[in-house]
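YM 10:42: Cadherin-17 sequence, as discussed on the call
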Amino acid sequence: MILQAHLHSLCLLMLYLATGYGQEGKFSGPLKPMTFSIYEGQEPSQIIFQFKANPPAVTFELTGETDNIFKIEREGLLYYTKALDRETRSTHNLQVAALDANGAIVEGPVPITIEVKDVNDNRPTFLQSKYEGSVRQNSRPGNSIGTLTAHDSDEENTANSLLNYRIVEQTPKLPMDGLFLIQTYAGMLQLAKQSLKKQDTPQYNLTIEVSDKDFKTLCFVQINVIDINDQIPIFEKSDYGNLTLAEDTNVGSTILTIQATDADEPFTGSSKILYHVIKGDSEGRLGVDTDPHTNTGYVIIKKPLDFETAAISNIVFKAENPEPLVFGVTYNASSFAKFTLFVTDVNEAPEFSQYVFQAKVSEDVAIGTKVGNVTAKDPEGLDISYSLRGDTRGWLKIDHVTGEIFSVAPLDREAGSPYRVQVVATEVGGSSLSSVSQFHLILTDVNDNPPRLAKDYTDLYFCHPLSAPGSLIFEATDDDQHLFRGPHFTFSIANENLQNDWQVSKINGTHAQLSTRHTDFEEKEYVVLIRINDGGRPPLESTVSLTGIILAVVFIRMKTDKGKDNVESAQASEVKPLRS
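YM 10:58: structure's back
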């Protein structure tokens, strides 16, 4: 391997000397930043330059974007081993450093730039091999059909990538050749000599060539001549007569079939027909669906018919194309048709003005107060009688004629709010049809519930004799509506005679603590009366009793049995002690 390396270096040196690279300052020189230009595609093993360095440098090192192509010999010969490709990398950024015998850098590294110069080695290519375009018949010469785009990978804005387009062949050559042209450099395909007729030739095929200075590529273009919308739809008859329907005819029903024809090219926007109701249906109760294959129009009911608002309607249709008509062509009377719709009456139930009626009153309103009203209307104009259904608490009554609703008993928010009942509207006479709506009565709160204990407090006792003052905690509540803060009760001893023995202290808005003031109590049951005030508007208060507060004695009985003491305890009533 060592012998081969020496032979390779010797060959490079001989090539270097043979090509004249050894001239001082032209093909060799000191280590410094340099730029070299090399054409892509040249034969490999070409020497680029020989670098020289001063002692103690004995060899050179090459780093950077070498792509395993660029090499440097110990003697400083920089060369490349493969043909370069500008399209792969147009610039190689290298670094060269001089090393001593130990491999340490003593000079550099310096940047070496290799610029790869372009040669025309890439064939222009189209984005696709076949294109399709269209041109309207009667289009004027010069109208654009489309633009073809080809790509060349050689360097941009040079002769190597300058592309030229031309039409190689047109088939068929009817009514003549040269009907199309393509802009040489832009690739825009245009109509050239005259307008086309679909009836003469519906399709043309072009062969297009793109070329640079050395290469050529072909693609194929299919051009379809499309019809223009120069024919209007024509109804087969202008008057479809009279049609009578009941007003309860189902929505979605097809009630009439209409037909127009169009002489333009079938199954295009020029021949497709859309039908519109342009007169006699301001409420939009009718619509027309078109069969895409036959252009038949099916008139359907979109919204319920109504004898009371539109007993007779003179309907006018217009047949149109989705594609605009060409200049100079307009729709005329042939594109319009009519029919007369008669709607017969059907007895209908009364209709409420809304599905849910809602009212709000205070729960303490006086009996006989109007709390709300409902309204309904009979489509045939008959009188209506109102009644209530579901008034389980017997709080309300309704005026059968006006629909006004009154209270007939005291209302109570705590018993139920909102209070929901049904209102029935029944036509007077006819078939007595009826309909139902909802009435929701929202009751606002008043302070009408006095405070009370939250639960029963029974079996309360302290052990007698008291060794220390005792206490218990109790909770109060009421049934009124409170803000998010909750109630704020105040507490006090109701009987002045008990205030020397007992005291009550507030813990928060709902809880308080009852405590003994001393320990000198007799063994008996005590009833303590507590006054609770809610601070409402108006304020309400009540007096509650904590009964069964028993001071119970624990008996200790002692006796002697054969000289030994024996202690037994006698139990009082089985109740739970409070804190003491």
